[in-house]
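Tokens for chain A. Residues wanted.
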């Protein structure tokens, strides 16, 4: 049978899925793709059940197939919901430990996994092929003596990705929602890089707060025309993940961007407001705690949102 673009993408997804979560997501997407195409295709499907009745065996079998697929879709969605809950708990622990999360996103084959390997030495499988990453991979990275971050690699985007495919990979893409910073990786050597960047930006806007800080990382400059590279700025950096060109520059941009996301505080929390203490520890980093006659003295740093809550008690 002739396959359309979505069918080909799904076949590639099926080849790339490695973990149980990835396989669940691919299977869900395949069934959601297949279900509306079942009408009139009963004779081409494997026999799931016989047919005795007024409508004839082919039509009866078609109904059995559709019921089977709907039941499987429901089961897969339940299993992926459990995955989301597990990821939510993992993210809650990250927040509690006050470790910033940086998400690597971009068009498929932009070099995200290669960059993750270059920055963290993670040893993640990376090849020059479409959709090489379907499952989110998170690794720690030490930026400075007192700054550690978590880098998360995500599934690559593609133009006109069908809505049901986006939904199937929602558990994976939700990693973006909870990131502190987005590294938008762009293949600087690709002739259609602006189209690819636009597609990825639209997907990021759909999944993230539009105010979330982003750095556009033009990768593969070793393969690009130098005159075709954009000028660098505080939110644009040009690198080669393969040969390490300007990775130190990227790290400095990361440090500066994450520093902007934190606010130093020194507050004296009245004992009547001690309920805020758990929020401060969950959402910030406390460097000093002292119990005084006036209240609880706390020195540390946290997000602007946290600071807004405790600013009335600033010393």
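Reply:
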């Amino acid at each position: 049978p002739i396959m359309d673009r979505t069918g080909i993408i799904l076949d590639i997804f099926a080849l790339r899925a490695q973990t149980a979560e990835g396989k669940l997501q691919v299977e869900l997407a395949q069934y959601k793709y297949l279900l509306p195409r079942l009408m009139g295709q009963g004779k081409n499907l494997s026999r799931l059940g016989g047919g005795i009745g007024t409508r004839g065996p082919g039509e009866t079998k078609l109904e059995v197939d559709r019921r089977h697929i709907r039941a499987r879709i429901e089961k897969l969605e339940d299993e992926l919901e459990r995955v989301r809950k597990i990821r939510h708990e993992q993210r809650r622990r990250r927040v509690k430990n006050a470790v910033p999360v940086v998400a690597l996103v971009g068009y498929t084959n932009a070099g995200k996994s290669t960059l993750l390997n270059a920055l963290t030495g993670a040893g993640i499988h990376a090849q020059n092929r479409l959709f090489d990453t379907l499952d989110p991979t998170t690794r720690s990275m030490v930026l400075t003596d007192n700054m550690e971050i978590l880098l998360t690699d995500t599934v690559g985007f593609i133009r006109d990705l069908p809505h049901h495919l986006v939904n199937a990979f929602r558990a994976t893409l939700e990693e973006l929602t909870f990131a502190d910073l987005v590294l938008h990786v762009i293949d600087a050597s690709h002739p259609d890089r602006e189209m690819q960047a636009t597609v990825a930006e639209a997907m990021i806007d759909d999944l993230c707060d539009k105010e979330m800080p982003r750095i556009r990382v033009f990768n593969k400059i070793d393969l690009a025309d130098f005159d075709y590279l954009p000028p660098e700025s505080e939110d644009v950096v040009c690198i080669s993940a393969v040969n390490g060109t300007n990775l130190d520059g990227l790290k400095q941009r990361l440090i500066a961007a994450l520093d902007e996301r934190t606010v130093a505080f020194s507050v004296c929390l009245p004992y009547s407001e001690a309920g805020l203490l758990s929020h401060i520890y969950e959402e910030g980093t406390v460097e000093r705690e002292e119990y005084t006659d006036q209240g609880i003295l706390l020195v540390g740093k946290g997000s602007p949102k946290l600071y807004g809550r405790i600013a009335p008690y600033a010393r």
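The chain has ten helices and nine strands. The radius of gyration is 24 Å.
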